[in-house]
Amino acid sequence: VQLQASGGGLVQAGDSLRLSCAASGRTFSSYNIAWFRQAPGKEREFVGIISSGGGSTYYTNSVKGRFTISRDNVANTVHLQMNSLKPEDTAVYYCAATNTYWSTTTSHYDHWGQGTLVTVSS
After folding, report:
1. Which backbone phi and psi does 106 adopt, to 5 degrees?
2. What is the DSSP letter of 74?
3. How large a percentage of the chain has pLDDT more than 70?
4. CB within 8 A of 92, min separation 6: which ones?
5. Distance between CA 106 and CA 22 in Å, rounded?
6. 8-66, pLDDT tens digit by residue?
7. What's the confidence (pLDDT) of residue 25?
8. Could you tell me if residue 106 is left (phi over 0), alpha (psi between -120 and 50 degrees) or otherwise beta?
9. Across-strand partners of 95?
10. Residue 38 forms beta bridges with which residues?
11. C-alpha 94: how far from its chain's center?
12. Is 31 exposed, middle or buried (0-12, 13-18, 19+ CB in 10 A)?
């Protein structure tokens, strides 16, 4: 599966933004999809994950209640809705796919999108 993330941009603190991850391939619905982010000078970190069927999600504590992941397996798309954005959310956001793990670990993901930059000004 090939992934392409989009939707990043420059917003102010408190604003909302929705990222999209478009996938190619007929097996998209068999993959768990996660979002990771990498801030300048920091390691890539887990943000959240949605199960292949969309019935389960899990988020890192810092985004719980603010971010929501959804997916459309007909359109082969996953969305990351980000509300109440904070300056510390500034990062390049990546979507990633695995059909093996339910994981927060980057090495468990076989397929990555190219990343989209989110900048939150204070």
Report:
1. -60, -35
2. T
3. 100
4. 8, 37, 38, 39, 115, 116, 117, 118
5. 19
6. 999 999 999 999 999 998 789 999 999 999 999 999 999 999 999 999 999 999 999 99
7. 81
8. alpha
9. 35
10. 92
11. 6
12. buried
Q: Give the rounded percent of residues in the chain with a pLDDT score beyond 90.
A: 98
Spatial separation of the C-alpha atoms in residues 41 and 63, rounded to whole Å: 20
pLDDT at residue 75, rounded to an integer: 95
Q: Amino acid identity, residue 67?
A: F
Q: Would you place residue 104 in the very low, low, confident or very high pLDDT band (cuts 50, 70, 90)?
A: very high
Cα diameter, the chain: 42
CA atoms within 13 A on the CB side of 20: 8
Tell me phi and psi for residue 66, to 5 degrees.
Answer: -115, -35
Closest CA to 98 of 41, 28, 24: 28
